Amino acid sequence: MKPEVELYDTTLRDGSQGEGINFSVADKLRIAEKLDTFGVHYIEGGWPGSNPKDIEFFAQAKRKSWKNARLAAFGSTRRKNIAAEKDEQVGLLIQAETPVVTIYGKTWLLHVKEVLTTTPEENLAMIADTVRFLKSHGRYVIYDAEHAFDGCKDDAEYALATWKAAEEAGADNVTLCDTNGGCLVSDISRITQLARSRLKCQIGIHTHDDIGLGVANALAGLEAGATHVQGTINGYGERTGNCNLTSVIPNVILKMKKRALPEGAVAKLKELSQFVDEIANIRHSPRQPWVGSAAFAHKGGTHVNAVQKVIHSYEHINPELVGNTRRVLISDLAGRSNIVMKAKELGFNLGNDTPELKTILTRVKELEHNGYEFEAAEGSLALLIRKTMKHEESPFRVDAYHVSMRRDGAASICEATVKVRVGEKRAHTVAEGDGPVNALDSALRNALTKFFPHLESVTLTGKRILDTATGTGAKTRVLIESSNGKEVWSTVGVSENIIDASLQALIDSIEYALQKG
Ligand SMILES: [Zn+2]
User: 511 alpha carbon to ligand 1 midpoint, in Å?
Assistant: First the structure.
């Protein structure tokens, strides 16, 4: 079925210009394949004229089959005073062998005169010639009108003349770009409407987020007559980033109720967003609208209480629609409802009238007061709930430990000794590590794998050390992330002493692994 709004992804081109983002050819291919499976209509793979990596991307991409998306190569209009067929950069666009070519050209007279240093007439000829040349090679041509809004505000008649030049030369789409990202929603609406009233071809919208309006401006463009929207996953891009497609997509489908993706695709939005962050080696932002881990997290006790009664009382949509999940955060603001919902989420059958509920709540508030935070340490919280509910003892005890550090040549080596007890049996082990936490972790694990062989598969995958100001003074909080290859869990320890805090978090981590079996 024909989409009412076309989605054009430029993560691999505009997005890759973001600070700290550097995709290899293999990364780009993986992202392109993911976007194709997800169902976007266009994937802009890169600018062949700007770097050899993008030429290589297109060389490899043309050997693959694409299910939903059409690939686009990006470039600019021909240089001034040269025929399009003689311009090397334009030639590379043809050599990329993509079904779609997107070129950008100048709308704003300031740029024509001061940056291109040419005449308004030559700029119109550059646009028309290049579009005509690409059309003569059978390409679907998208004309990105750079600085469309700023240019139109400066000289509307000239701006319209540039867009018409593209249309009359055969461009299939004229996309209006807020290149500097500084326009207000009202500017976008008015100028898109003007373009709609004067052009016959499809109109697209391409915005940037410099004043925090990237998504709002894209939606305004769509409401004013554009039917094609360009952006990047997670809003990657130069400066503050491009229009964030991860927000545009659910807004178009769930709020504006327009057809844009195959049935069910939007439920994979969070997965797509996380996937792209992972490839880009960027931490997934918890506060990202729609897909962040905090997007449907409830913390205040009264909110949680209301959500428990009527789910949608504090939620704008059901989080599952975009593949996200509702989370209940546990903190010293927690009420009974938080604990009940959290316990359910963790798989415990706990109700408002379970007698242990009060004990758990009191214990959580006490620990939070002493500097613990359970928001990011669900493993420790699950253990606390379990132990209280089942009146369980710990499966092992650490009777004593010792950590020392020495320098040996250039390397510093930490050594840890632990004495543990499992029932009546005891073990005493020593291990080395490149830091105190690793040494302790190894010593503890060496001692305990004798009793619990399946601990072999558990590894320490991350640690974070934070200072925490508490009701009782400054302390260190250590968060540890562990994995058994299938599941990842986080645990927490707090103490005046960093080694002590680490040991607590390590013990919780191992206990959690043991109760998983
Ligand atoms: Zn851009």
Answer: 50
